[in-house]
Write a structure and sequence with these properties.
α4 (46-53) runs antiparallel to α24, α11 (239-248) runs parallel beside α12 and α16 crosses α18 (452-461). The protein has an 11-stranded mixed β-sheet. It has a 7-stranded mixed β-sheet with strand order 16-17-15-18-19-14-20, with helices on both faces. Strands 1-2 form a two-stranded antiparallel sheet. Among the domains are: 198-228 and 235-294 and 307-358 and 378-498, P-loop containing nucleotide triphosphate hydrolases (Rossmann fold, 3-Layer(aba) Sandwich), CATH 3.40.50; 528-714, P-loop containing nucleotide triphosphate hydrolases (Rossmann fold, 3-Layer(aba) Sandwich), CATH 3.40.50. It has 28 helices and 20 strands. It is found in: Nucleus, Nucleolus. InterPro entries: P-loop_NTPase (IPR027417), UTP25 (IPR010678), UTP25_C (IPR053939), UTP25_NTPase-like (IPR053940). Its main location: nucleus.
């Protein structure tokens, strides 16, 4: 699951069983609930209203859950909600990959919960790269032969075995550079000598070697992000896009950890769509042009100059969290291919695609108040189990193409996981990942809230030699693919809202690009603590752990020995304990039960009725402690009323969650500010998270300090 395996020892057998079912499937389903079941968030008497609405459900469970000696709800309450028309068994089957492993999209009939598949087989010959030729009028292939074309420079480079060996054994060397918009950059590489890449102030579209239609369509498509008055010399890129595309176009790997769904998310999406489409159009143009040359050559002529493709056709893999993201990407790709309103491109299965990936605005409950970033992240269709193949040929696009006939694959981590399968499964397939040349992982931080293991599983199965030939013409396959060197040519573009060790690890351990890597490494000067508007003392308590593997147990022991005893007294009631890791939550819950503490709990598995009861018990003081998981907060953003004492068992993954949780205290109508407390546990391994909360200057002091650090922060201090 999303945490490391050594955490699982704290998990009971029943919880292990629960974890087999994808929790965020249910969480996502509950986000689409009716206004009646959601609007209670904005009502003072929300809990009682919700109990009324869920009367049947509450009656059936109340006898089991209310008044238990341990003070918590029955464990049966901590299971994915079964109300949304998809049973736990259905979800488990989807997780186990029961569908055919042929790369087709999986969609679930919302009314029956029936899995149905659709693959476009009708347009196979029309979109075949083997049987089509370059249209003479286009002239695109000749344009791609210009000197300095980044695509040809990157793909035509022939590595030597010595260089491949060096990349596998030698450490990377790095250098620093500061760019006007991106800030601090770290360039790292094993082979390349560090010729410092400079950020161009002005970019002429014609100098970017864009494929023919993109030169004219990009300025129009990107116009929405540009100021109404822009310099004539650079009319088509925002400052951020200009610097990002400058790196992308050199085919270096890129890690940008400052993606923000509210501010720059769509800018970034447009930039990587331009790069991906430019790559696909150039690659396909090369194949089609060579088809024509081979057709015209004399019989019996053996020419090795036509090695222009991989072992399988898919070239670009885009990993995004929700169907809405895939919908937006496809719309951008279509817009980039349409030269004018009069010259629309032919898009097959467009109506079906809109039906399965679009959303009905009426599905969203009215009067639902959530933070702006939440609204931006969870806009549109938020189903997280999908994959779709796209074939592009000159002036046409084919949606729902079989994977082995696709140029671009757009998928969620779960969508990839269920087709890749696991060892021992009969129906599994990952050959289509063998020749991926550009991997784009967008919104990587959200996968930490879903299941990070799916991302790692994908990285382990990309760019492997295929088990079957899939009808490939080996005389056309590049030597780099035949040598099993695809991973050294693959460009990885990684976008995230935050720096995180697990995301950093993917970039450092699973990216082997011979050109090198570029990572944006800006340090937060101010932390999210400055956005706390309630007056309360923040006590940061440092725990000493010998190494990274022992920090989990050390934190637990530190909490039960040093922190919890201070809160056992009845005077310290209304204590919320914020727990980022589900496994830590299970461990704490089991300990609280064993010690017979007066507590209640809310996690990502808790049913609506259980959430309402827990909130009511906590608000009224009937339960002294509330265990509260980060993933529940991420997916729901409920305001928890009645908090007087706050304990961050670990620093939050998202720094702004710190101020959000602290500011929930102002929702408490009665109570004296002076009695409020906030305690945070941290170790030296939490440097990145700590800096995001308190700022870099305080972080340096706190990591060196051996005493508790007391901060009293209010407003924008």
């Amino acid at each position: 699951q999303s945490e490391t395996s050594d955490k699982s020892s704290a998990e009971s057998d029943s919880e292990t069983e629960v974890e087999q079912v994808s929790v965020y499937h249910k969480l996502l389903a509950t986000l689409k609930t009716s206004p009646e079941s959601e609007s209670e968030e904005e009502e003072d008497e929300s809990e009682s209203e919700e109990d009324g609405e869920n009367e049947t459900e509450v009656d059936s469970e109340e006898s089991q859950e209310v008044g238990e000696a341990d003070g918590g709800e029955d464990d049966k309450n901590d299971v994915p909600d079964q109300e949304e028309g998809i049973t736990a068994t259905d979800t488990a089957e989807r997780m186990l990959g029961q569908e055919q492993a042929d790369g087709t999209d999986i969609s679930c009939d919302p009314s029956h919960g029936v899995i149905e598949e659709f693959t476009d087989v009708k347009h196979e010959s029309e979109f075949s790269l083997e049987t089509n030729f370059m249209e003479e009028e286009s002239g695109d292939c000749n344009a791609d032969k210009r000197d300095g074309n980044p695509f040809k420079q990157h793909m035509d480079k022939e590595l030597e075995e010595k260089e491949v060996e060096e990349m596998s054994t030698l450490p990377k060397t790095s250098s620093q550079s500061k760019w006007p918009r991106l800030g601090q950059l770290t360039f790292s590489s094993t082979l390349e000598k560090h010729t410092t890449l400079k950020a161009g102030k002005d970019v002429d579209v014609k100098q970017l070697f864009l494929h023919k239609p993109l030169e004219s369509t990009w300025p129009k498509v990107n116009k929405q992000f540009l100021p109404s008055v822009s310099k004539p010399s650079d009319p088509s890129f925002t400052p951020l896009q200009r610097e990002l595309f400058c790196i992308m176009n050199t085919y270096r790997d890129l890690f940008y950890p400052e993606r923000n769904a509210l501010t720059n998310g769509e800018e970034i999406r447009h930039a990587y769509c331009l790069h991906a489409l430019n790559h696909v159009l150039k690659a396909n143009a090369q194949v089609l042009s060579n088809n024509a040359k081979r057709r015209d050559q004399k019989p019996g002529t053996d020419n090795d100059d036509y090695r222009d493709q991989g072992l399988t056709r898919p070239k670009v893999l885009m990993i995004v969290p929700f169907r809405e993201c895939a919908l937006r990407i496809v719309h951008i790709l279509i817009s980039l291919l349409e030269v004018s309103d009069k010259r629309k491109i032919d898009v097959s299965n467009k109506k079906r695609f809109k039906g399965e990936f679009g959303s009905d605005p009426e599905d969203k409950p009215p009067n639902l108040k959530r933070p702006e970033d939440y609204e931006a992240i969870f806009a549109g269709n938020i189903d997280d189990h999908f994959r779709i193949g796209i074939a592009i040929l000159q002036k046409s696009m084919r949606l729902y193409a079989p994977f082995y006939s696709s140029d671009i694959i757009i998928a969620s981590p779960l969508g990839m996981r269920t087709v890749i399968g696991a060892e021992g499964e009969k129906k599994r397939d990952f050959d289509f990942l063998s020749s991926i040349e550009i991997l784009i992982i967008d919104q990587a931080d959200i996968y930490l809230m879903q299941n990070w293991e799916h991302v790692l599983h994908l990285m382990k199965h990309i760019n492997l030699l295929p088990l079957d030939s899939h009808g490939v013409d080996f005389s056309r396959v590049r030597m780099l693919n035949l040598n099993n060197w695809s991973k050294y040519y693959r460009q990885t573009l990684l976008f995230s809202a935050l720096q995180d060790p697990q995301i950093n690890s993917v970039f450092s351990k699973h990216c082997f690009n011979y050109v090198g890597q570029v990572a944006v490494r800006n340090i937060p000067l101010r932390g999210s603590i400055s956005h706390v508007v309630v007056q309360l003392p923040h006590v940061f308590r440092k725990l000493e752990a010998e190494n990274l593997t022992t920090v989990i147990d050390t934190r637990f022991q530190f909490f039960i020995d040093k922190v919890l005893p201070e809160y056992r007294d009845a005077i310290m009631s209304h204590t919320l304990i914020y727990v980022p890791s589900y496994f830590d939550y299970v461990r704490l819950r089991n300990y609280f039960k064993k010690e017979e503490l007066n507590f209640t709990h809310i996690c990502e598995y808790t049913k609506k009725a259980g959430v309402c009861r827990a909130r009511r018990f906590f608000l009224k003081g009937e339960k002294q402690f509330l265990l509260f998981t980060e993933r529940f907060h991420f997916y729901k953003r409920y305001t928890i009323k009645g908090i007087r004492n706050l304990i961050f068992y670990e620093l939050p993954t998202y720094s702004h969650f710190y101020s959000e949780i602290c500011n929930m205290m102002k929702a408490t109508g009665n109570g004296v500010d002076a009695t409020w407390t906030c305690t945070v546990l941290y170790s030296k391994y939490d440097a990145q998270k700590l800096a995001a909360v308190v700022g870099i200057d305080r972080t340096a002091q706190m990591l060196q300090s051996k005493k508790n650090v007391h901060l009293f922060v209010t407003g924008e201090n």
